[in-house]
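Hi all, a correction to my earlier message: I attached the wrong file for S8 family peptidase. Here's the right sequence:
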Amino acid sequence: MKPSKIAQLLTLMLTPVAFQSAAEQPTHSTATMQLEAKQTCIVQFNDSISKFDVDGRVRGMLSASNAQAKHVYKHSIKGFAVKMSCSEARSAFGSDSDIVSFEPDSLVFVSAPPPGKGKNKDNSGDPPANQQTPWGITRVGGPVDGSGKIAWVIDTGIDLDHPDLNVDRGLGFSAFTSGKDRSPDDGHGHGTHVAGTIAAVDNSIDVVGVAAGATVVPIKVLNRNGSGTTSGVIAGVDYVASVANGQGCANISLGGGVSPSLDAAVEALGGSGVMVSLAAGNSSQDANNASPARANGANIWTISATNSNDVFASFSNYGNPPVDYAAPGVSVLSTKKGGGTVSYSGTSMAAPHACGVLLMTNGSPNSNGFAVGDPDGSPDPIISL
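and the right structure:
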């Protein structure tokens, strides 16, 4: 499918809702959300500024300009998202020599349709009565015991009560401050599916993950429609950087247009020691055209998708760099919001396979075979334990 068709499909299936004030208005149209994003500017400071000085700097700047911040960033990039256009922000703050960029906020979406929608509709019937091992888990060498490992799922949240997931709700985070999405509980289903592939418990129900039984932490940056803003995703990345102590793997199965600020935040998270698995994207184009897929640096891996015959998925983004590995991403069975299982496709499903492998290999993954038909002519190795 051509990129334009993918974009049209996402627009039809994912009715976006803006973060913060708009979180209470789930009927917002895409046009309204785009307008609100245009009225938000991501202001980035020089990284030499101490994280301890950011709050004071931001308070002073906001007070002088009678403005409001949506988010403040201290642990990945240094800066804030302000409720004004970048033109207004430049006028208000442009004389500050410690500001390195003004970036308009933008829309971000899950890197797959929601469960039960479009061509990825679940046709599997009733959930299995007994535990199944999905083909992708076997393909990457799992399952293995992931006890003691931790995965940060930067997504739509996670079903906090799913019986097949070991969820740490106490460490959970939501970029939403009002409305139904302020809880890290999953209102969409995408994050729950991702979490299951990484770490579903090895028991008698549903499925088993690559790093079975590892702790999964819900970092909600996308709403119940599977959409959000770049400024909110950076807030989630910044939160993980503040609490992870360089431990675990952060899975980021979402994407949008090019955002240097988001790329910088993800690269800083990797630089802190947290392993980061990024979905390459589903637009059948060069992954360098999408953020955060294009982010590159220490402890960062971008993942394309293959089917059960190791054939490169027709929807998957490509390009070396930034793509490092391929992983199973077609007809992937995993945990479903509310219990049970669902099967669907996307590079969103490939990235968590890689995240589980990264957890269990401490960031030194192996590979087993190559993606067949990789359009960039440099076949991606298929990640494996």
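Sorry for the mix-up. The chain has two domains: 33-105, 108-114+127-384.
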